[in-house]
Specification:
This protein is α/β, with parallel strands linked by helices. The strands form two sheets. An eight-stranded parallel beta barrel has the order 1-2-3-4-5-6-7-8, surrounded by eight helices. A two-stranded antiparallel sheet has the order 9-10. The longest helix is centred in the C-terminal third of the chain and has 19 residues. The structure holds ligand LIB3CWND and magnesium ion. InterPro entries: Aldolase/citrate-lyase_domain (IPR005000), Citrate_lyase_beta/mcl1/mcl2 (IPR011206), Pyrv/PenolPyrv_kinase-like_dom (IPR015813), Pyrv_kinase-like_dom_sf (IPR040442). Its cofactor is Mg(2+). Belongs to the HpcH/HpaI aldolase family.
Length: about 280
């Protein structure tokens, strides 16, 4: 069972075998850490990286950060050992790349041995099957992999990610329909702070719960953009108070700051307050 009100704004990837990054991640204000064994680790280093990931977990020092392992794809020779280690070493969940179908999602859940699965949607087929993948019991989140997806689509994303918007929204719709979480893909230009912030704001607008990151410089902006602001909290409290005043006077619909308020707005306002807390 996943705690839906636990903030998961910033989800940082790092190569499991890069010692300086592992040490740095323990000091960063990230909500989730993904030790990567897949694309950030070259084939010859896979076994050593798996050992490094286990050692990093056993050494501790991760505080309240949620710890995930990104395993290699299920079709590889490394996946079974990756997932067995994740369970044995005490990771909180596993990220499974390139999940293409319901069958593959079900296999991931089985191989994860009870650990929650965050399924990566990063192939055209994965996008089309995302609604069914998200409903597989044991899958608790969809993770957008927009670099792989753009490659497979032969898309050339602009600053507004125009050719990817269909897929990004499809991932959010699939996740929300199934009641699981969803996280946006990475922004690869680590030197472009303004570009990162703009993309993170677009993630929020699309409905994602958080964003995956690749560099410490992206953490603070991500947390800020995905946190309810002080104004959001004041707005939510005012809206709930207005709705409750309406109920007390016998009406189920009222206005707040000139806009209609119904129970659905109150539900969203309560979610915002829960997150802010
Ligand atoms: C992108 C990087 C390769 C850049 O590396 P580098 O230029 O060496 O970074 P810096 O010199 O600026 O690093 C400064 C210090 O910060 C630490 N660091 C860097 N990145 C991280 C990180 N991700 N987490 C924690 N700490 C980090 C460095 O170790 C330096 O520390 P120190 O020496 O003590 O000062 C690099 O940032 C990187 O490797 N990022 C993560 C790459 C990764 O994990 N990729 C896989 C996931 S993304 C993906 O696969 C896409 C997806 O699947 C899709 O299809 O879209
Ligand atoms: Mg990928």
């Amino acid at each position: 069972m996943t705690d839906v009100l636990r903030p998961r704004r910033s989800v940082l990837y790092l190569p499991a075998n890069r010692e300086s990054a592992v040490a740095k991640a323990r000091t960063l204000a990230v909500d989730c850490v993904i030790l990567d064994l897949e694309d950030a680790v070259q084939p010859a280093a896979k076994d050593a990286a798996r050992e490094a990931a286990a050692a990093a977990m056993q050494a501790g020092g991760w505080g309240g950060r949620e710890m995930l392992l990104r395993a290699n794809g299920l079709g590889t020779a490394w996946a079974a050992a990756d997932l067995a280690m994740a369970k044995a070493a005490g990771f909180g969940a596993v990220v499974v790349p390139k999940v293409d179908s319901v069958d593959e999602a079900a296999r991931a859940v089985e191989m994860a041995g009870g650990l929650p699965v965050w399924a990566m949607i990063e192939t055209p087929r994965g996008v089309l099957d995302a609604p069914a993948i998200a409903r597989v019991p044991g899958v608790v989140a969809l993770l957008a992999g927009m670099a792989d997806l753009a490659k497979d689509l032969r898309a050339r994303p602009d600053g507004a990610r125009t050719p990817l918007l269909y897929s990004l929204s499809a991932i959010v719709v699939a996740a929300r329909a199934a009641g699981v979480m969803c996280f946006d893909g990475v922004f690869t230009d680590v030197g472009d702070a303004a570009g990162f912030e703009a993309e993170a704001r677009q993630s929020v607008m699309l409905g994602f719960d958080g964003k995956t990151l690749i560099h410490p410089s992206q953490v603070a902006a991500c947390n800020l953009v995905f946190s309810p602001s002080a104004e959001d909290v004041v707005e939510a409290e005012g809206l709930i108070a207005a709705y409750e005043a309406g109920l007390a006077s016998g009406v189920g619909v009222t206005t707040f700051r000139g806009k209609m308020v119904e129970v659905l707005h109150v539900e969203e306002a309560r979610r915002v307050l829960g997150l802010a807390r």
